[in-house]
Amino acid sequence: MPNRLASETSPYLLQHAHNPVDWYPWCDEALALAREQDRPILLSIGYSACHWCHVMERESFEDDETAALMNRSFVNIKVDREERPDVDSIYMRAVQAMTGHGGWPLTAFLTPAGVPYYGGTYFPPEPRHGMPSFRHVLAAAANAYHSRRDEVARAGAQLTEVLNRSATEPQPASGPFDLSDGRLFAHAVSAAGRTFDPTHGGFGGAPKFPQPDFLDFLLRTGGPESHGVSMASHTLSRMAAGGIRDHAGGGFHRYSVDARWLVPHFEKMLYDNALIARALIRAHLLGARHLGAVAEETLDYVLEDLTSPEGVFYSARDADSEGEEGLFYLWTPAEVAAVLGRDEARLVSRVYDVSEAGNFEGRNILHLPHDLDAVARQEGIGRDELDGRLRDSLAALKDHRAARPAPLRDEKVLTSWNGFTIRALAEAGPALGRSDYTAAGARAAAFLLETVRRRDRLLRVFAAGRAHIDGFLEDYGALGNACLSLYEATLDPRWLTEAARIADATVAHFWSPTEKLFHDAPADGEALVVRPRDIMDNATPSGNSLAVELLVRLAAITGSAAHGEIAEAVFARERGTMERYPSAVGRLLTAAVQHAAPRLEVTLVGSPPSLSGMLDVAHRHPHPNRVIAGGDPEDPAIAALPAMEGRLDRAGQAFVCVGTTCQEPVSTPQALDAALARAQSVSPAG
Description:
Elements (H helix, E strand, L loop, with lengths): L10 H5 L7 E3 L2 H10 L3 E6 L4 H11 L2 H10 L1 E6 L4 H15 L6 E5 L5 E5 L13 H14 L1 H20 L14 H13 L16 H7 L8 H15 L13 E2 L7 E2 L2 E2 H16 L4 H16 L10 E2 L2 E2 L2 E2 L7 H8 L1 H11 L19 H8 L3 H19 L7 E2 L2 E2 H18 L2 H17 L1 E2 L2 E7 L2 E5 L2 H18 L2 H18 E2 L4 E2 L24 H16 L2 H13 L1 H6 L5 H11 L3 E6 L6 H8 L6 E6 L4 H4 L14 E5 L2 E2 L6 H10 L8
Parallel strand pairs: 1-3, 2-3, 19-20
Antiparallel strand pairs: 2-4, 4-5, 6-7, 8-9, 9-12, 10-11, 13-15, 14-15, 15-16, 17-18, 19-21, 21-22
Helix pairs in contact: 4-6, 5-7, 9-10, 9-11, 9-24, 10-11, 11-12, 11-17, 12-17, 13-14, 17-18, 17-19, 18-19, 19-20, 19-21, 20-21, 21-22, 21-24, 25-27
């Protein structure tokens, strides 16, 4: 018999619908039952592409004896962290405070009031590696609640106080606050250099995460030869060569368990591919031209494999297939030879390190351990010939692989993750000469705004034909920024209007003028044990940083002083965080660069179709703080922009300004290219 999760739309929850556990989704009914029966809550949080979530389900949640113990002792609640990031954030912080670490699956034990008193992550079915068995944990947690009630209450109260403080107290700064002198940005670059891996790229040792938001910040700290840009470009190049990239099918896996980007956790997340693609595009514009092709391959993967019939984007591909992690992506020499024939198999095996011994559990992850120019010389062929042969071989391997049982695809649509993807497509379109990308981004944005918006409110999830769950701060910030990027890519005033509307709703529902911060959940949202708020990026950029970036970018185009003042208040409040933990607040640092650094303003006057050539040129210049505005002067929304003042009768012309210094207007793509070259990039890191 299925349990209550059978009526949910989340693929993760549906995976547990036939467990013998009496699961509830997070809902008033479950919380009320816990209060009425005075039973503690077992809260289990994970997501569909989580390998260890699947392991714990097979070992414990499908076990009748374990399920019976859970059902006797607890009200059992299962949460998809991607649907409810607010619940996940609160109880992840709680478990980290109790144990010193976190992760998924997250296992937390709560009082009926929702106050956490014990927790952990994965627990095995039998004791091993110093971990107690899950059944032992269940018995101990139930016993503590019923026999040591005062102790549980005291621990819960202390933990709740810690959670409240961490959600509201800013980090102290070392000195006076001034973004304009660039010292904060230079400090962040210097701090990154201390942990940078000059061989393999990335920061620190294993495991290694892509950190695309911090890489994006580093790519805005100067020209191609600057230290920040070189660290970021090298990191992206090593990632592109590693096994974290799917060389046969496109896209990137979640992260690498080793220091050299070889062995990934094999899930593919929409947000990773969108955020990495944006960083790849910026590195490409700064001179790492080989990364432009990797960005295209990544976005092509998203369009091919993660796009719904409506044109919006699915969330993920699982890591597992046929019960094994990564099996879909692995190769043996015999398989490669059977697909390609002996000669091409020899070349591909040499280039992509395919051997009998294997590099992962007896099989092979494709990666690029050798310089391809050196391989071409040793093979006695030109680089173009090598590239063409490899391209054909990889296409054949991809076609062959398509017949394998594929990992599960999580087909829920999340507003924020779609926002990241729409923005990547909008920025990639003109930068890479792919108008189809821009069109795909616009189609997705139009569908979302029609489907997940109720008056000025956004919903978070679209699945099984319906939208539900009130949107969180990250949903507003991500979609608002996506609309702004669509405006800059097309000069269509619709997208500027939509961005402004979303920004106003963001301030109305999430901004706290007394605390000078945004909360992650709306003021009138569900009352949880604390109101969540985070300034630090996680796997995705924080809601606060997205909201601030939206306001900064919008103010740069519309001249809104109110939006700029809110952003400045957050920067002032969080100076200490940016100073102490720069790699954890990459998106907030990027917003600060966009607010404080000298700005390159490109204003194009005229109907957008007539400006397409100059618009593409504007997008191909890599100034770290470029703003593109303008459009049809006959449109009232465009005519009201500050950049259009005195220029309404200058149709067909482009204006290039750095700060308050403007060049003579130009009217051809070639002249605009020259004007932009004269507008020297100014490094915000000094």
